[in-house]
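Thread title: Can someone regenerate the structure for this chain?

I was given the following input by a collaborator and told the matching structure tokens would be attached. They weren't. Posting the sequence so someone can regenerate them.
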Amino acid sequence: MNFNLNITDILNLPIKIMSALTLASGSLLLLPSRFLKQLHLTTFINKYGFIIGLVFIISLSILIITLFIQIFNFISEKRSIRNFYKNAESRLRKLSPFEICIVLRLFENENYTSFLPINDGAVQKLENQLVISKTTNQYMVTNPNTAKFPYLLQPWVVEELKEKEDLLEFFENKGHEFLQKKENQQLVYDLLIRSPEF
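Best answer:
Regenerated them for you:
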């Protein structure tokens, strides 16, 4: 029997197989010799004991490191989610007046959805900040330069605006103040009111 062990092959094995290797090699090393003799494995262990020990140590080490990484990633993800919701209001208050008008427009709709130009910088920024998201990735348009996609206001933003009256009042005041200028009214009209081209 010829064993050609390649360390990179061992490192790339799935976790389930790595766990099975650890269990099997650990059993061969740690089970009583009387039990191994009944399984007719003593000759095999005597001949390949070094390789079995090496497989056990490497697979156990990889499992332990993987476990630590998964625990760390789980804790980090939970912490980032907690911080995301903890800082939700302050992030919303930092939006520009134009972005606030976009959010208010979506919030006023019963289904929190509206057509927005995919190429607009403010829309892109709101999408990157997870304030809004596309309801579809494919939509038929006649002109890609003026394409409008249906966007949805994220549920966490809806909850913030519904639960915090002072935040909604802040949004309404900022939006009203922004719309006092005629050029801003036209800007918002072009972005939000004008129907998408089909």
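Residues 101 and 118 are 16 Å apart (CA to CA).
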